[in-house]
Amino acid sequence: MTATIRDFARGTATTTPIEQVYVGRRRRRRRRVIAIAALGTATALLAAAMLMLGGTIYSPSEVLRVIAGQNVPGASFTVGVLRLPRTVTGLLAGVAFGVAGTTFQRMLRNPLASPDVIGISSGASAAAILSLVVLGWDQTPTMLFALMAGILTAGAIYLAARGGESAGGRLVLIGIGIGAMLESVVSYLLLRANQWDLLTAARWLSGSLNGASWDQAGPLGVAVVVLLPVVIALSRDLSVLELGDASATALGVRVGRVRLTLVLSAVALACFATATTGPIAFVAFLAGPIATRITGAGGSPVLPAALTGGCLVLAADLLGQYAFDTRFPVGVITGILGAPYLLYLLIRTSRRGGSS
């Protein structure tokens, strides 16, 4: 049989449909492994570039010595205190946004259904701005408040959109509307803020890694370490949910329990990332589709989307810091990349007359 499959791959033999399926699966599996390895390598290279590049360029050996805890004059402060927390925070935020985005998109079977498009990130943003501008809270209470607000926003959107056959498309539309309302709340809070709070809030709203510290990266890291394995463990059920609730139930998936766990995990990841770095635009929206293009159809989308999200944030931050005369926050760069794709999807969805 092995020889026959090899001949089929060369186009020199006639095979049965079962053998053709076997060859196709093997090719898809090989492509997926290569793609994930390439994404992991790209992520590592971007992280290394974040640590080495800057006003002073350090060698890989100096960076490794700093990471190992050795005292390297100059590099210990620049790399260990400034660049390493920024890199880790960006990577964790990208992973969190990527996993949250692809979870919603796959579960709702709609490429528009990412947290930043359907209003969940707007709920977390409104809560964070309220805590920063009005209440004067520090980082930890702000993150918890943003998390609760994001969960409440997701619950409100779900309750308003439930029922009927087109719940996925209705959820997106209702989410966009609620997101617009929450953005107006943010605008009102900014108008009432004093000058110092306004600068802090504006920098946060742009989605920035400036001033990243271990105090910020710690809670986000805990959230990623705890919730990412949960989503990966349910990734097979997530793929089955794309077939619809009836088919998923027939295949043995506990739809209600799985969906609730996935929603809570995705919302928590998106809200923790938003509270840490601000709403980095379109990372959750782009990571899943880009990962699918790279890995091909089939297989769990979670790990490729996580790596793609990390790559997007790190690459955008490098571009924002060094590609232009003026330094731009990472959210500005991702917004420039994501806005055209959002318009493309909206136009395509409108022409089809439904959710795509």
Protein traits:
single chain; mainly alpha; 15 helices; 78% helix; 356 residues
Helix/strand layout:
Elements: H1 2-10, H2 17-52, H3 60-67, H4 75-108, H5 120-135, H6 139-161, H7 167-192, H8 195-205, H9 214-233, H10 235-241, H11 245-250, H12 255-277, H13 283-295, H14 302-322, H15 330-352
Structure overview:
The chain contains 15 helices and no strands. It is an all-alpha fold and 356 residues long. The protein starts with a helix and ends with a helix.
Order of helices and strands: HHHHHHHHHHHHHHH
Principal-axes geometry comes out as globular
Overall strand count: 0
Overall pLDDT: 83
Terminal Cα span = 40 Å
State the helical fraction.
over 70%
Number of helices: 15
Indicate the proportion of strand residues.
under 5%
Main beta sheet strand tally, sense and closure? none
| Sequence stretches where pLDDT stays below 50 over 5 or more residues | 1-5
Q: What's the gyration radius in Å?
A: 22 Å
